[in-house]
Amino acid sequence: MKLYPALVSRLANQHEAIASIVASANEAKLKKEIRAGKWSIHENIVHLVKYQPVFIDRIHIMLTQPEPIFEAYVADNDPEFEEWKKWDSERLMNALQKDRQAILHLITSLPDEKLARVGIHKKFGRLTIVQWTEFFLLHEAHHMFTIFQLANTIIE
């Protein structure tokens, strides 16, 4: 199992678009529930930031245990999520960058045989570390698209 250039590039850079996407939104818009019952821009960003340490932990578990099974991460069931929602944008973006550097280093430093280690996702089955990383990035991209939509929604 090998890393491919597009994966490494996205892992290194994809998250950096968040700051540009929300640059024109003030703090009130970041925290406003634009769609009833759905997360705000801020809550989507908190979710992305909070999931990074979860992802790091899962990779370490995959490296030390044979084919561990992971439940879906549900932010609303994470007691720390409420605390992290109190963080300001600067603190969130700093944590996003710091943890992303840790993820990038962890993933890119693994030899091919370690990248082939497997963790079991309840919905998607057996995934290698490379596939988990792709899943991580696609999940992040989904939330980034949501953030883009919310940031560009006209509020009346």
Mean pLDDT: 95
The shape is: globular
> What is the CATH class designation?
Mainly Alpha
Assess the beta-strand content as a share of residues: 5-15%
Tally of individual domains: 1
CATH superfamily: dinb family like domain
Poorly predicted regions are: none
| Structural class determined from secondary elements | mainly alpha
Termini Cα gap: 50 Å
InterPro entries: DinB-like, DinB/YfiT-like
Protein name: DinB family protein
Pfam families: DinB_2
Describe this protein's structure.
With 156 residues, this protein is mainly alpha-helical. The chain has one domain (5-151): Up-down Bundle (Four Helix Bundle (Hemerythrin (Met), subunit A)), CATH 1.20.120. It is 62% helix and 6% strand. Helix 4 (41-64) runs antiparallel to helix 8. This is DinB family protein. Residues 14-144 form the DinB-like domain. InterPro entries: DinB-like, DinB/YfiT-like. Pfam families: DinB_2.
Keywords:
single chain; 156 residues; mainly alpha; Four Helix Bundle (Hemerythrin (Met), subunit A); 3-stranded mixed sheet; 8 helices; 62% helix; 6% strand; globular; DinB-like; DinB family protein; DinB/YfiT-like
